[in-house]
User: Fold Substrate-binding domain-containing protein from Agromyces agglutinans.
Amino acid sequence: MRAGRPRWASSSSTSRFRPTRASCGSPRCSTSRISSPPSTSDHRGRLEQQMTTTRQPGLVSVARHAGVSVGTVSNTINRPHLVAAETKARVRASIAALGYVPNRAAAALRRGSNPIIGLVIPDVMNAFYAAIVDAVVEAADRHRYAVSLCVSHDDPDRERRHFELLAEQRAAGALVVPVDADRSRLAQLRAFGTRLVLVDRRAEEAEGCSVAVDDVLGGYLAVSHLLQGQGNGVTIVNGHPAIPQCHDRREGARDALVEAGRNPDSLIEFVVATMNFAAGVEVARRIVAQDAPRRIFCINDQLALGVIEGLTAQGLRVPEDASVIGYGDLGLGASSRLSTVGQPKHEMGDEAVRKLLDELMDGESHVHTATVFPPHLIVRGTSSHAHDLTVA
Amino acid sequence: MRAGRPRWASSSSTSRFRPTRASCGSPRCSTSRISSPPSTSDHRGRLEQQMTTTRQPGLVSVARHAGVSVGTVSNTINRPHLVAAETKARVRASIAALGYVPNRAAAALRRGSNPIIGLVIPDVMNAFYAAIVDAVVEAADRHRYAVSLCVSHDDPDRERRHFELLAEQRAAGALVVPVDADRSRLAQLRAFGTRLVLVDRRAEEAEGCSVAVDDVLGGYLAVSHLLQGQGNGVTIVNGHPAIPQCHDRREGARDALVEAGRNPDSLIEFVVATMNFAAGVEVARRIVAQDAPRRIFCINDQLALGVIEGLTAQGLRVPEDASVIGYGDLGLGASSRLSTVGQPKHEMGDEAVRKLLDELMDGESHVHTATVFPPHLIVRGTSSHAHDLTVA
DNA sequence: TTGTAGGCGTTATCAC
DNA sequence: GTGATAACGCCTACAA
Assistant:
């Protein structure tokens, strides 16, 4: 089917233009008109409300068709156990025959709540959050909930706007990675009856359920692993310590040193502004120049890959001359040679949905819980068959 | 605030357990009870429908409070130009005073359509689709539409289930990367009145709008770039040619050879089953063993990074001894040294939303269009300040 | 086990 | 410009 598509060569003019962020009206991209829709038999003037054509069939149509009452049809759909088998069958047949599609908006209006789960994350391009989105969407689908996604980009306004949307939809609940520590917006949403589960953050006081990961333990695992190799001292390449993750992972690193009988202050720290590949390359230069320890814990994988690149460019061999460990298992998936600390992302998303649904179902008897998942060490590149290792 | 969190050391037992995919009931992750919610003042027995507490204020409450009719309140919200300035102000004050939140479910019921855009993609973890999600969510937010996300994982059932959901919600429209070539499901959804825009696929016949990227051009750009370097012949590391992207990019590669006055059949092809890092490493071995051309076009970035790794492991230097180019710009973001072909992902998502909204607004007069975006070459690693280059 | 009827909160069409 | 009022399609006591 795609064989019939026009070859680029046949319209080489398109290759002249590079898309910009401007509007697409300009000839920068080839836009072809497709036969204008021949007013597909659906020319209903907006004035004639009463059409002879059978509009979207509702419960009533189904009821008539099956020779039962609307209540029975509703019951067959929502509480099948209350309906006699034979009636049920007849109703179902009618539903299929008429192509009836229930109207959730009407149900939501009546019930006062909508089977929609809001999901607010800071960034979809980030593999960590993407994994959570994946898990949440899957779990929600299993329970026939819709997922209304919001990407906050750390903008409180966006977050608030999505909260309003959820409130207007009378969404059943929301899973949110809050933008900042200001919980007043969250409280506001909750006050409106929307159940909330915090993700990647601890819920405080008795405000609700939460799902998080133990970054202190993660830092500990990473540095404990480094300490098993040869060398002396440990270097940490960190982001700004005001970021909770950075703070916590460093704490864990210090714990590992303490456990090994060393002074936690012996940890040599390099702080970078942006935690990416380029910064890693740059830090590698400083590490070599200052002759810092060659057992290096990087706060994330991109930084780690950058450091390796930088070390290699300076003639050092990894892992012979230096040990590097990353964090997050987000770089190239399981394909690179980098050891790292993995986080149970899918489980987190899963558990968040579970908590929310539990709160929705149990209602009064629900007890808020805070689950903290332990990360795990992933050791790679030691043998030709790199594999995941779990360290107790 | 996070200072108060328990240190891992204080409950070292958690570090003993590694989460499995099983249920969270087991002691594998530390779950702490948070003070049980003291039945937050909200103990309304399900029998007493009539509560004395002012339920959620509706249009009527606002109307009463402002001393106007419901119609006027509705108008102040939806068609402010029809309302006198002074009345408008009074109504708005009442809305704020009562904390009124409009009920979208009711509006949707009445209007027959819901301001929700469905988005169906095969995979959120894939950076290409993640970028599209990001763009779509942002554009939808600008217009106050909600985005209902579905990740199909190439499963037609999931796709169908989400289509049903959208139909039940009376969603305004949907953006979809279809699972397969079978367009009957799409037709079904469309028949229900949901507007559809195809993403990363060409719409056929007059079925609707679509947004895609020109992979033939992308392959051409990549190989043209390789041909500018020294060496003779070109190697392509490809996925299965039944995948449209793989097929098209190879076509473009052949076009480039033709343009350079070479025989397109001189292209040496290695086909891999899974297009990841490990496969790249393996292919590199075969390339060296068979002495295939050292100008290598890889169908994606992961493969390319694997090939570089494999070549390096065999003692070759890149780019001195071999030129490698990837595709997609998805590897490490803009941070690696790999040249590649970039796709205007954000523009695609943006344009898809624009087409959908246009169809929604214009109604009858809407004309379906198919937009094909040109990819662009990204050359990296040539200087110490790697930067993006656009080639005309 | 099934039928009946009232109302959920909005929108839109009228008169005024 | 504003006020009444009739749907929209479904759920759920309650009656039969």
Notes: Chain B touches chain A through 115 residues (CB under 8 Å). Chain B is about 40% helix and 15% strand. Residues 49, 63, 68-72, 75, 82-84, 87, 106, 108-112 of chain B lie near DNA strand D (CB under 10 Å from a C1').
